[in-house]
Amino acid sequence: MIKKLYQWNYTIEGLIPEQVRLKRKFWLKKGEILLKKKKTKLFAYVLGTEYDRGEQRIVPYMWMSCLISSNTPELSGGSGASLKSLDELGTMPMIVGKLSDSLPDAMAEVIQPYAPKFLRFIGKLHDKYIDVVNENNFLAIALDYFYDAEKKFVYSNEGFISAMISMEALFNEGDSDIKYKLSHRAAFLLGLTGLNSFEAFENLKVFYNARSKLVHGGVKLNDDTDTYLVSRYTKRALVIFMILLKNNERRSKKDRKRNILQEIDYAMLDEDRSKSLKNEITKGLEDFKLKIPRTFERNIGSEYYRVTVW
């Protein structure tokens, strides 16, 4: 039975500013995922079949964007149209919703040259690390929960819980001492990247207690200004795991999660192992450093604009 080719249509909000144009079509993945900008809407056309809508190919790009951007892209839509050939991808019509414009055109012109660079950066990051994600189910689960947390915002009950579940997926491997193991291991790794490990340890214990109360007691999350740190910690931890699991020696082991957690535990007890782990992480973090401006400023008439774009 021959599977018919389909163009699955999506819109993406929050990946690049609404008023920033893409002057030409942009392949996020050559031959599979095509981006086009029409007025303020960013459309994604994904090659699939009548049984494969393509979300599993485009959502990981949203994950990668969350790891390096302060904004959270959201995917919507999912209408489809059959194709006669691959050349028709991106040409089939799709229904569009109401357009909005919040960024002045003059400001968008400043950002314009950097949008393709940002999209290429996300694409390269995806291509380099997606195999690592696919090989480690616990990492894919953690990324998915983090993406959910960023969409819902960590100051909401649901977003906070999703962020903590993401951390549990990374750092917990059993049913006992979950709070201590999560807080201790995460604080150690975060300390290797320059964050205050003692502060992170105490914060994560508080966060885990809050998570337990929310799940089991139904109480509301306190209006705590430090809650944003759960997002910062989770994002950094995910990046660290991706870096470490990219190592070919670790990839050759069967129970990767158990082995990497054991390696972290041993490094906490041995200075040489700790230094080696720190050097490896520091080197890997270069992959995730966005080398274009994140924030843009401009005076437009009598108004001053300063916007963090990604």
Per DSSP E runs of 2 or more residues, the count of β-strands stands at 7
Low-confidence stretches at least 5 residues in length (pLDDT < 50)?
94-101
Task: Estimate the global geometry from the Cα principal axes.
Answer: globular
Number of domains: 2
> Could you say which structural class the secondary elements and strand pairing correspond to?
alpha+beta
Radius of gyration: 21 Å
Q: Biggest sheet, strands in spatial order?
A: 2-3-4-1-5
Strand percent estimate: 15-25%
The succession of helices and strands, N to C, reads EEEEHEHHHHHHHHHHEE
Q: What's the multimeric state?
A: single chain
Q: Give the biggest beta sheet.
A: 5 strands, antiparallel
Query: What distance lies between the first and last C-alpha atoms, to the nearest angstrom?
Result: 44 Å
**Helix fraction bin:** 40-55%
What is the helix tally?
Answer: 11
The overall average pLDDT, rounded, is: 87
Describe the structure.
α4 (137-152) packs antiparallel against α8 (228-245). The protein is globular and about 55 Å long. The protein contains 11 helices and 7 strands. Residues 94-101 have low confidence and may be disordered. By secondary structure, it is an alpha+beta fold. A 5-stranded antiparallel beta sheet has the order 2-3-4-1-5, covered by helices on one side. A two-stranded antiparallel sheet has the order 6-7.
